[in-house]
Amino acid sequence: MFRQRIKELLSLLGVGSADLARLAGCDQSHISRMVSGARVPKNGGAGAWRLVQGVYLCADEKGMVNALCDLVSCGDRGDADAVRRAVMLYLYKGEAPRGAGAPREKTPYRAFGERLGAVMDLTGLSNIRLGKALNLDPSYVSRFRNGFRSPKANPKTMSDLCLFLLDRTFEQGKEGELARLTGEPVEEFSDREKAAEILYLWLYSNDGGDSGPLVERLIDQIGFFSAKVKKPPLSFEAAADTEILADTAETYYGREGLRRAVIRFLGSVIRRGERELFLYSDQNMDWMVSDPLFRAKWATLMALSVAGGVKITIIHNINRDLSEMASAIESWLPLYPSGRIRSYYCKTPHRPRFSATLFLCPGCACIFGCNVIGAEDGTGMYRYDTDPAQLAAHGAAYRELLSRSGELVRVYRTSDLTYPERRDGSAFAVFGGALSLATMPEEVLRSALGRSGADEERKKYLLRLREERFAFLKRSAERGGFHEYAPVAAAEALPGGSVRMDLPELSVSYTPREYAAHVRRVIGISEELVGYRFYILPEAPFEDVKVLISDSAVAVSRLREPYLTFLFEHPDLCRAFLAYAARIRDQYSQDKLTTKRILERFL
């Protein structure tokens, strides 16, 4: 009977063992053995409840809860626990389950944030006290605990955090309690050095993959890079020595020769008022970054080039890892607001025998070198060509390389970008700090605009943008899914007018009545569209930044001056962001009925 009932449930939901296992949080082999009849879990036991939870979440994900209720004869369709109990009765017809309902406890300490929170609770630490001890903002500690951030981007923070927690544990004589948290024998904590090793491994193991810190760092850089937009560190005269600019050499040698050639090249571009630069280099960047003075000269000349109206096309060397890709993006961030930077990555395989450098200014000059990797500093040779025929040949070579490249990042001078349509049926994930403009009722937007002080043109634009955003949400939900992640307001904050609306480049707060109307609309959309999900977060994962993620594009929008949106389409970068979104989804996933019950407190 049990085997037949499982098959009926799988048939109704149109899923296989793999999908059911994913949602049940167990190995596929466990489900396969149940389907084959090789294993029948104990009625009301943990295995049975995992199976029931998987069935319910599958029905919830596919918008088939009503169909499931029809099959299992559940009359209370508005109560998730009642539906799960009915599924259990259906599976074990004729037997009463031992438990009163599905177990609701989360698996303890499955992520870094939960483990950190457990040790902080053990030692009586608040976010403020821990932040003060480690010179961290308390909001940053909060994001550690909530799973939005990981200290893995900063090894020193990882070490300092571990040692501080350990010292506090020893001071309070709670080594035994810490041993029980980590699952290690208490005698292992008699030695401080051994205890530190155990705590470090326990805190930082299985922390959602290595891509999370990279994603967090890149978003932070985009959110805060404006603080780095400064005047060039040097004057033109200090950066481009007159003697170097007067040089007529046709060949330069080694690291120092390349530096000299670059100063001559960029200085000539600026003095002549040239309009375009084409850059590519896959050799080690030590020649540029190892000498602080030369790096300042490079930064000065690049900034002056952009300020003078030079358009720069750069093909980045990002063949080795994601960190290299993020560093390539970050190093150019201060220049992106100019709108004069176009970044690409080469799609063809990199063969690590020779390194190549090609810096071209059409009609002016070109630096070109092709050298054995590792020998560039000593015996590397770099041509400095100015002959028109040579420049034309270099230009043809660069265009060929560009034809084999994809755009790494596109920058739009707006925070309200209309996002590109997805190529397939995968889901969009949107991370923000408030209920979205896409789900805002028109009457709420009109009410807010009436007191916003915005001019008529801006009002018409935002009303049109709301329609476009909802149409995009609806199409996406119907094709593959549209998942929004955002915190809900604290009830006490609404009367004080401190809950901001998601209105691009406009600061307006909700009234309690407007917020209730918006929440009601979110609930309605969730019930109307199977593919729409709203995930409630305890706080905004990022400050003044909105992130949209799909398997083919990632858009990161700044919500403060300068208003910009960075669009990435590199497959590896998209996968890293998807992994981050999946980690947050797994931590804060709830069925629609539970989410509805939480939201209804605002109504």
Arrangement of strands in the largest sheet: 1-7-6-5-2-3-4-8-14-13-12-9-10-11
* Class computed from helices, strands and strand pairing: alpha+beta
Here the CATH topology of the largest domain equals Endonuclease, Chain A
Give the total of domains: 4
CATH C-level category of the largest domain: Alpha Beta
Enumerate the spans where pLDDT stays under 50 for 5 or more consecutive residues: none
Task: Write down the overall geometry.
Answer: globular
How many H/I helical runs?
26
Largest sheet: 14 strands, mixed
- Please name the fourth-level CATH homologous superfamily of the largest domain: Endonuclease Chain A
Helix content: 40-55%
The separation of the N and C termini measures: 44 Å
Oligomer: single chain
Residue share in β-strands: 5-15%
β-strand number: 14
Q: Please identify, by name, the CATH architecture of the largest domain.
A: 2-Layer Sandwich
Task: State Rg.
Answer: 29 Å
Characterise this structure.
- With 603 residues, the protein is of the alpha+beta class.
- It folds into 4 domains: 90 residues, 434 Repressor (Amino-terminal Domain) (Orthogonal Bundle); 96 residues, Orthogonal Bundle (434 Repressor (Amino-terminal Domain)), CATH 1.10.260; 181 residues, Endonuclease, Chain A (2-Layer Sandwich), CATH 3.30.870; 175 residues, no CATH class.
- The protein is built from 26 helices and 14 strands.
- It has a 14-stranded mixed sheet with strand order 1-7-6-5-2-3-4-8-14-13-12-9-10-11, with helices on both faces.
- Strand 5 and strand 6 form a beta hairpin.
- Helix 13 packs across helix 25 and helix 16 packs parallel to helix 18.
- The model has no long low-confidence stretch (mean pLDDT 88).
